[in-house]
Specification:
Order of helices and strands of chain A: EEEEEHEHEHEHEEEEHEEEH
Strand content of chain B: 25-35%
Helix content of chain B: 10-25%
CATH architecture of the largest domain in chain B: 3-Layer(aba) Sandwich
CATH topology of chain A: Rossmann fold
Largest sheet of chain B: 7 strands, parallel
Structural class of chain B: alpha/beta
Oligomer: heterodimer
Number of strands of chain A: 15
Radius of gyration of chain B: 25 Å
Distance between the termini of chain B: 74 Å
Number of helices of chain B: 9
Strand order of the largest sheet of chain A: 11-10-9-12-8-1-6-7-13
CATH topology of the largest domain in chain B: Rossmann fold
CATH class of chain A: Alpha Beta
CATH architecture of chain A: 3-Layer(aba) Sandwich
Radius of gyration of chain A: 22 Å
Chain lengths: ~260, ~400
């Protein structure tokens, strides 16, 4: 079966700062990586292909030309093919426009059974793109998947993490699954994989290639607008409680008394 | 350039598949000689037919240059989440904030409740500030499922046109609301920690953390309605029941098809824990690498139990197998926001701080005076956690008795 994995390239650290002069993010010097949650999505897709002994894993990313690096890394882990969606017209996309654009690429790829995404990206933390895609494609979804119990060409039986525990859900394919960390342990790229990645030809699809409705992509297609970006006020300086452990903990218990009882 | 929104069927692209006829919520499309024809007296330009058309044969042209008329959209809606028939506390927090927003706009606050035999809960929502409750009561809505819940909320939004829709940033809220926002072409902002109304434009100002809370962004939805947002649990103050509330319960009905679900919920498994879940907890006691082994987590659990709190863990403790992943706090785990967060033997890597630094009070207990956790701590104790934690449990026992 054909499995698609959607990945995003993000800054390696979330410890980013704002340039107070220009009010823009300082990203210089920050390495880019594959969104950590997407690593689990890649791993799970490869495992399913390996277990079934057939099919292919196609990894798709939308982003600037340098997102090609993320796709090459995915290939070095074992994905078969990759596609980059890159076009100046995609710039400024919010989650609505992003999920629309990705869904156009998925339709173009065609013939898929499963679409994997990480539960959210570590830079935006929205968790909105996966469910957005399933809606644009009008296929079912399961979010926060922590285990795939069974899977065949028609359906999958999965465990979905909730606040209290988990749910067991049976979903017909094709479907979108967004995954959490617990689902697996991502592998490191192999030497052979790295060689393959080096040679891999990765096509770039533009808005025209995807026959996008231009009113639905990029900034024009994004209902939301960021109007202000700022650094949150730092936490007030704390207090170190001195003394022997028993004295310190007695004082601490007194200090917390109201908050605990209230 | 058009002076109003128009819907156009491109006859050269339409193949007469009639998919649009099926998806139109208002029965406005019919097939005439194998081409789609839109009855403009029924069509609300909701756009439900545009995306499903596999041939891009339906186009809605929005009027340009002129501000769109949103006068049909009013009221602030709160999606009230229930589990096992109990309205979840995040819903009460949203009613509190929703009341404030509705008052600023001079509109009604409406609660939306989906479930099975939930009618008696509507009174409580009214007493907590709702002017109206839209109730969808059906055995098929007993448990959350993506398809029926998002279809029902989409249908309600299309029918009643709220200007603002709020929902908890929970596993339910985040899974459902993005589907609704895509369907109705609404703007959606995730995981807000601040909401206000712009006094001039009357737009919803949605403030949210990004980059793990290192940066805050304020976001608006200028040209689409409704303006939708998910809101982080434990940030807003709960609306208290007033007892004097007057309000209307509106029972909604839709054709049976709306309840159908492609996926099926086979089972709900509650993992047995002696303590409450992290998202709901007012107090969290967390352990990290310094705890040393699985058995040593007992002293963390005892303190949590004494405080009626939840047990958290750093990634190091989870990766070592001392605690299950469901307890992990931090970037690859959960983001929590309790009143008190007690970090025991946690050094405070940035990935951990991201998940807990918006807690009201942070207590750090660590042997290493240079541990980064102290930089965010309200109170710090530089000592061996094996001496401090049991002693703290004893002192709290005295206080609480």
């Amino acid at each position: 079966m054909k499995i698609l994995v959607l990945i995003k390239q993000v800054p390696e650290t979330t410890d980013v700062k704002i340039d107070p002069e220009t009010n823009t993010l300082i990203r210089a010097g920050v390495e880019s990586i594959i969104n950590p949650f997407d690593m689990y999505a890649i791993e799970e897709a490869i495992r399913i292909r390996e277990r079934s002994g057939e099919g292919e894993v196609v990894v798709i990313s939308m982003g600037p030309p340098q997102a090609m690096e993320a796709l090459k890394e995915a290939i070095s882990m074992g994905c078969d093919k990759a596609v980059l969606l890159s076009d100046r017209k995609f710039a400024g996309s919010d989650t609505w426009a992003t999920s629309y654009t990705l869904s156009r690429a998925i339709r173009k790829t065609g013939d898929y059974k499963l679409i994997f995404c990480g539960k959210q990206a570590s830079d935006g933390d929205t968790a909105q793109v996966g469910p957005g895609i399933s809606t644009h494609l009008d296929i079912p979804q399961v979010t926060y998947v922590k285990k795939i119990e069974e899977i065949n060409a028609e359906k999958a039986r999965v465990e979905r993490m909730t606040e209290e525990g988990f749910e067991i859900i049976e979903v017909p394919l094709p479907a979108v699954l967004t995954v959490v960390k617990e689902i697996n342990e991502p592998r490191l790229p192999s030497l052979k994989g790295k060689m393959r990645a080096k040679k891999a030809e990765i096509p770039v699809w533009t808005a025209e290639d995807l026959s996008c409705d231009e009113e639905k992509i990029g900034l024009d297609g994004s209902p939301t607008r960021v109007i202000k970006v700022f650094t949150p006020p730092p936490r007030e300086g704390g207090r170190i409680l001195a003394g022997e452990p028993d004295e310190a903990s007695k004082e601490l218990a007194e200090l917390l008394r109201d908050a605990v009882i209230g | 350039m058009t002076d109003r929104d128009v819907i156009i069927v491109l006859d050269d692209k339409c193949v007469g598949c009639a998919l649009c006829v099926k998806v139109c919520p208002f029965g406005a499309i019919t097939m005439v000689e194998r081409k789609a024809v839109v009855d403009l007296t029924k069509c609300t330009l909701c756009g439900a037919c545009v995306d499903p058309c596999k041939f891009n044969a339906i186009v809605i042209r929005k009027k340009e240059g002129v501000k769109r008329d949103f006068s049909a959209y009013k009221d602030v809606w709160v999606f009230c989440e229930q589990k096992k028939g109990e309205v979840q506390s995040v819903s009460f927090e949203l009613l509190g904030k929703g009341r404030e927003l509705a008052d600023k706009l001079g509109v009604d606050l409406c609660a939306v409740l989906l479930g099975d035999k939930m009618e008696e809960k509507c009174r409580e929502l009214i007493s907590r500030g709702a002017n109206k409750v839209y109730l969808m009561d059906s055995p098929k809505l007993r448990n959350y499922q993506d398809d029926p819940y998002s279809k029902v909320l989409t249908a309600l939004v299309r029918k009643h046109k709220p200007e603002i829709v709020l929902c908890g940033a929970t596993t339910i809220g985040r899974s459902m609301i993005s589907r609704v926002a895509v369907s109705v072409e609404a703007g959606l902002t995730a995981d807000c920690t601040g909401l206000d109304i712009d006094p001039e434009e009357k737009l919803l100002l949605q403030t949210r953390p990004a980059f793990g809370g290192n940066i805050m962004a304020t976001i608006i939805t200028p040209n689409n309605r409704p303006q939708m947002a998910t809101v982080r649990h434990k940030v807003m103050k709960e609306a208290e029941p007033s007892g004097s509330g007057k309000g209307e319960i509106v029972k909604e009905e839709f054709p049976e098809e709306i309840y159908s679900s492609r996926s099926s919920l086979i089972d709900i498994v509650e993992e047995i824990e002696e303590t409450v879940n992290l998202a709901e907890a007012d107090i969290i006691v967390s352990g990290g690498r310094g705890v040393g082994c699985q058995e040593n987590f007992d002293i963390i659990k005892e303190l949590a139990l004494m405080l009626k709190g939840a047990v958290g863990a750093s990634r190091a403790a989870v990766d070592a197998g001392w605690m299950p992943y469901s307890h992990q706090v931090g970037q690859t785990g959960k983001t929590v926001c309790p009143k008190i967060y007690i970090a025991c033997g946690i050094s405070g890597q940035i990935q951990h701080l991201i998940g807990m630094k918006s807690s009201d009070i942070i207590v750090a207990i660590n042997k290493d005076p240079d541990a980064p956790i102290f930089s965010v701590a309200t109170y710090g104790v530089v000592a061996d956690l094996f001496k401090v934690v049991p002693s703290l449990t004893t002192h709290f026992k005295n206080i609480l008795n």
